[in-house]
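Is S-adenosylmethionine placement plausible here? Inputs below.
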Amino acid sequence: MTTGEGPSVTDFDRAGVRPRPLIDPFARAITYLRVSVTDRCDFRCVYCMSEHMTFLPKAELLSLEELDRLCSAFIAKGVTKLRLTGGEPLVRRGIMTLVSSLSRHLRSGALSELTLTTNGSQLEKYAAELKDLGVRRINVSIDTLDPDKFRAITRWGDLGKVLAGVDAAQKAGLKVKINAVALKGVNEDELADMTAWAHGRGMDLTLIEVMPLGETGESRLDQYLPLSLARARLAERYSLVDIDYRTGGPARYVEVKETGGRLGFITPLTHNFCESCNRVRVTCTGTLYMCLGQNDAADLRAPLRASESDTPLFAAIDEAIGRKPKGHDFVIDREHQRPAVARHMSVTGG
Ligand code: SAM
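Reply from A.M.:
I modeled the complex. Tokens:
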């Protein structure tokens, strides 16, 4: 795998032609790629996976070299923000080789941000290396600060280990944002305390509405807490002031006056922000999903493997972006309890 500096354009533009930037049919520029580097995870969060998941055979996965080439093709086409996710990205064998290789695009200036979303279980081990490789910020998913509840939500997780990972990340100088899925009757009473905890440690907190992705063996209606409700309850304890702060993702932020910290809301159900969508997602098998909540996809593995040249890959990416839908339409109510799409979040990459 290439890890040297080298001019990034000639490195990825094997066809010798400057590829066209990615503009979808609704004139949205696609500048943000999320890559699920594995569908495997060491947790089994109840809203994300079923307890007994069948994972992809390892032979179907793109190699680290192929993932690098795929990401680099997107970067050549104007992607400036790359997020590694999963499954759990830090359980993919050799993941640091990929981060190290991709970091050349940070040094060349082609990428403005290389980041990841993690459950934190492996952060103690990797935080310092991530920082050394140019990662500046990471998202860590923590839905509760109660160890028993944490175990119940994740089925397998150890909160102590995750918190040690957060400590290590902060000590290494990584900026940490906490993501929490708001779950009815599970963590809804804790959201104000979690806000105080995160802000007390200098971390933003973002709350996420549960999305109807994949069969998990649990009722979505029992899990779904509209963030409009959560926000109203938080406003009983805190003064929340809307602010314009953006990180390039779908979260909308408020400042919490009492803590001085930022609280984000990702509301794909109560209010989607599809009109400003700038991102696409690719799975560990090279399937490109143009929308998290739609089934349409494009196979990029075949064109990637078909030729040493990136020309067929660029053509396949262009064709797929030409089909990016306007948005998704998640609904969770008594009439809509089935998944909007069959695949789990761990496949597409959250
Ligand atoms: N393992 C990593 C982690 O835990 O952050 C990365 C992958 S995980 C699928 C990414 C994010 O998606 C996590 O914050 C998780 O809580 C969230 N997530 C998973 N399933 C979800 C669902 N059905 N609705 C909303 N968020 C979901």
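Short version: DSSP finds 13 helices and twelve strands in the chain.
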